[in-house]
Write a structure and sequence with these properties.
The protein has 148 residues and is mainly α. Helix content is 70%, strand content 0%.
Length: 148
């Protein structure tokens, strides 16, 4: 995630991207991936408003105001994935999704949709607010594909 801390973020561009959010397309995506649980996920979003455009714009303003602090947390407090992989390798534990039979497409979709199942603000919601969730989810897949 140190990559995120190095991004030159265009906060106005983030707001423009969030303004293009397509609720109907999101609901269809949820229905396609969550199947029987989809209605519960949609109802949770209706209560939480994580995808509400105006709320997202307010969060982006807040992110911009506190960006230096957020970057500090990213750099100094988030665990280093390479160190975690080293620990897992040392105990012969699986460390890549494919090691436990999870395909790349499921990994990416899971990262993109994971923010929908809980009402809390975390890294995935931050990435969504900034418009980076899709790209960073693919980066995650690519990173673990490249680890041997």
């Amino acid at each position: 995630m140190e990559q995120l801390a190095k991004e030159d973020i265009d906060f106005d561009g983030c707001k423009a991207k969030v303004a293009s959010f397509d609720q109907k397309a999101w609901e269809q995506c949820v229905r396609d991936h969550f199947e029987g649980a989809a209605q519960g996920v949609i109802e949770l979003e209706q209560k939480a408003g994580k995808n509400d455009i105006e709320k997202a714009k307010q969060r982006i303003d807040h992110i911009q105001k506190h960006w230096d602090t957020i970057k500090d947390v990213i750099v100094n407090e988030l665990p280093d994935p390479v160190k975690i992989i080293q620990i897992l390798k040392a105990i012969d534990a699986p460390y890549r999704p494919i090691d436990v039979g999870i395909e790349d497409s499921l990994v990416k979709d899971s990262l993109i949709l994971a923010k929908e199942v809980r009402v809390r603000y975390g890294l995935l919601q931050l990435l969504w607010d900034l418009g980076y969730l899709d790209a960073y989810s693919q980066d995650f897949v690519d990173f673990y594909k490249g680890i041997k």
